[in-house]
Batch of 4 targets.
Target 1
Amino acid sequence: AILSSGRQVVLAAALLHASGFFFGYLLSRMLGLDVSSSRTISIEVGMQNSVLGVVLATQHFGNPLTAVPCAVSSVCHSIFGSALAGIWRRTIPKEMQDSNVKK
């Protein structure tokens, strides 16, 4: 049943991590943190520990396939996190640009 619902598992994992990245950034900015800190929090929130899910699934369920969604989640957060870090690496926050100009 788990393997036959592959699209749903991938979609759920993708939405979980995308919303983590988005809301981690949004809420930290709303709380007044600077862009650099908000980016860091976004990465931390979006890249939740899927390995913990794998360990818990294999320890508490008899079927080893219960760990498959966690493994898919791990791949998703690795891809999304790397892509987001690459994009943000190329875009310097305005507040950092301003501090470099003042020096």
Note: Residues 3-94 form one domain.
Target 2
Amino acid sequence: GYEVEAFDQPLDAIDFLKDNDVHLVLTDVKMDDMTGDEVLAHIKEHYPETGVIMMTSFGNITHAVRALQKGAFDYITKPFKAKEITF
């Protein structure tokens, strides 16, 4: 099985990464304190082995391609089913 931690605020998730070995981060693209792009950039700079899947209700091909080029493992649109998440 998997251990899952959930955060309402992206900065709380970033703080959690400092002291915990995280294999995968699932992040929304649009959030209040940080964008998903900022979360992706931070993770790839500080934790390059951590996979990042970005999710959004407002997906477009250009943003998806850019996210994948910047290191996202996947880019999915909401709503989605759990079986759509592969890592």
Note: Residues 37-87 form a domain with the Rossmann fold fold (CATH 3.40.50.2300).
Target 3
Amino acid sequence: MNAIKSLNRNKSPDTYGVTAENLIHGGEILASYLQTLLNSSFEFCFIPDVIKFGILTPVFKNKGNKNDAKNYRGITITPTLSKIIETVLKFRINPKIICIQNPLQRGFTKNASPLYCSLIMEEFQRENKDLKKETIFVMLDAKSAFDVVKHSSLIRKLFHMGLTPQEILMIDDLYKNARSSVKLNGEQSKCI
């Protein structure tokens, strides 16, 4: 399975102690069991809650006061099996999204760099300067945008992009009943 082969190696084990290497080196028998499990999950558009659990660890950004929570970012370790489901969904959905994506979209796009966008902006500014036209750029700092995504709006957008009902239900189910606990100084909190 391509989804298993594409997992990032040398990462921390998940809540259940499973690493990408366990699945990558698990052989054909494990892959066939996983495929049966995933096929059932996609057939019924259902992701078991047991694989929607993450452990969040605050990591210091190496700047500022260690006592200030703003100087930490959260790293969440999710179950390896959920990463496989996400990867399968990505393989199915990306070709549809790339076809209708704005050609100027550069961030989070394969084989594209935000630097290309800055080049386009620079050329636009130079051309306007030559034509003696005023140029105004409005910039958006979206560094925290993913923290405040309104999932219902995202799901609606996916529907309008032409995703199948099955794909939309699977994405929606990934986030329903998702839980996390916080791990700090060797102690782990209750689920939130």
Note: The chain has a mean pLDDT of 89.
Target 4
Amino acid sequence: NMPKFEKRESQQIMMKEIYTALRDSRFSLIEAGTGTGKTLAYLLPSIYFATKKEEPVIISTHTVQLQQQILEKEIPLLQKIM
């Protein structure tokens, strides 16, 4: 169960694109504004792909703040719901 879950079509499109790019071993560029849910949109398909294929997926961020957010907030949230 995700508290304050809000279904966002743009986030679903991003997730599908990211998973397809991982599956097809190709690059993808996604641009979206602040607060659109980009972090979860790339983490969820990345975790699914890594688990399904038993291959690592590397996530690189521009800021230490985003690294901390991913490690301390987003990944624990995804662990609870998966």
Note: Residues 21 and 27 are 6 Å apart (CA to CA).
